[in-house]
Amino acid sequence: RQMCIRDRTYAEQLKRCFGILVSDEKNLFTMFTRLSLDMGHIGSDTKKVMLAVDELIEKINETETYLTEKAGITVSLDRERMEGIYFAMISGESYEKKIKATEKKELRDIDNSLIQILDYAQVSEEIRNEFERAVKSFCRLADKESRVSETDKIRKAISTSFFPVYEAVFLKSLKDDRPPVCVKLFLKFGFVSEKLLTPEELAGLLELEDRAEIKNGCQVYFLQDWLKGIYRLEIEPSKNEFDMDFKESLRHQKSTGFLDEEQYEKSLNNPIERVHFEITNLFRYADRVVCGKISTFVPILYGEGMAIKLEQAFLTADKINSMLNKIQSIDYSIFFRERLASYEKVKIAKEKIMKKCLPDIILFPIYGQNGIMWQDIVGKHRDTSARFLFPILLEKDLQKEMLKVLGHFRWEICRSEQGMQWNNLHYPSLTSEYTDYLQFYRKNSDLSPEAKVKIKTQLTQNGNRHRDVFTKDYADWILREAKGAMRVNRVVRNILYTYIPFSKKYREKLSEQSLYEEAGKRFRLEYNKRKKEIEISCNRFERAGIPVPAELMLTKQFYDI
């Protein structure tokens, strides 16, 4: 054990030395190559310095090999840039010319970013002056997290003018195939000024810009890509904080006399009005919640507000989908919706089939702490995609935030499906049984005195919000109970097993434990009944010589997961 500790300590020390050699912002390789290039530029002999650089490269290669192959430590090394600088040194070209040519992005592209962004936005003189003055004042603040009234005024001024600027920049970018670098960073990350980040952070941000891609799977959108879908009428605008969508908002304005029939019809498919609604009602409101700093919120990117490195915080579609797949491997039914179908050819009047509806995930241009379940369905249709919101730079653990979001989603989708009866025990459901459990836990003979004390504490800690108490139990259910570590009480275990069953792999592992065998009784009865019904329906098609419909096959597969 002592040998392992000693080896690990040595590897960490070697990693720090590697940073000094080549990967730190100020490193020996850059210093020596600069010296060689500068000496060559003034006509001095560079042979000794070049020999030193060659020796340095050998050490860099040896250290990288050891750390990667022997110690299993991944190191950051930009070989392309390193080779470009080395070529500049041996060819005798100027440092300024070659070093700049080897950088993937030129930092000079984001010089005077604030003015570039405002020139691009072409907002009114009043908004421009307010935003420019507020951002410049913010840049000069020694303590940007301070709660003094003067700092609060500056943050408020930025927050007031930021969203009109964002809207103007976005609308102009729709007609621009090659917007300036700082404009792209503004739209994706909330970047407004190079003065708010260190040179290292700026270089890191540009790297994130290079690698940021939207991929297939569970659809993950940068905010500006989501807004493009709204603008092109491909996506319906989200609900506002009062649970009212774009069409409902227009109908309300029409009913109260703010719009006549002609104005109402024009507004319905007006792309600019749709985008304005989304920015005003989703982005402006939810940005503060996603950020997590309610009292010191400012919707722009600045170094002092970041507790972890950009690379570590950056969310990608791959990261999000990997996490969702991990959770779905346990909670297999979370994105399946039950709906009715009929098949006259085989005389099936009513069949319950399962439809999978993956959520849409929108990445807000901000560094933040929270994921949000914004809405569980679109409009009134229960078999539509939910909408989850995350900051593009997430400070907290993704798994923890995703479980919180999915716990809220489980609760809200059940409420939508149950309607007015969501908390009525005469209509058994996840929310009605869990609500009954929390309301009457003191009289429940299945709960021990210790369990009752714990429930009281849970309610107090969560402000008596039943959804939040459930979400904590849901996280324990997925992370711990699925592995056989008993963290929830008997009553909760019975409810969760019935409505949030584990996938077959986990059910089989847990079946050896008597408590899980007991908890799964209700689930197994319903599961076996439905599985048999689906098999009978599929057999009808096969006997009639008709191909089984795809949705029925998916439902059959669902009962084998």
Helix content: 55-70%
User: What sort of overall outline do the alpha carbons produce when their principal axes are compared?
Assistant: globular
Largest sheet: 4 strands, mixed
Average predicted local confidence, pLDDT: 89
Strand order, largest beta sheet: 1-4-6-5
Distance between the termini: 43 Å
- State which percent range the strand residues make up: 5-15%
Low-confidence stretches: 94-105
Q: Pairing-aware structural class of the strands and helices?
A: alpha/beta
Radius of gyration: 29 Å
Total beta strand runs? 6
Number of helices: 25
Structure at a glance:
This protein has 561 residues and is an alpha/beta fold. It has 25 helices and six strands.
Walk me through what this model shows.
It is a single chain. With 561 residues, the protein is of the alpha/beta class. It is 59% helix and 7% strand. It has 25 helices and six strands. The strands form two sheets. Strands 1-4-6-5 form a four-stranded mixed sheet. Strands 2-3 form a two-stranded antiparallel ribbon. The longest helix has 25 residues, at 149-173. The radius of gyration is 29 Å and the shape is globular.
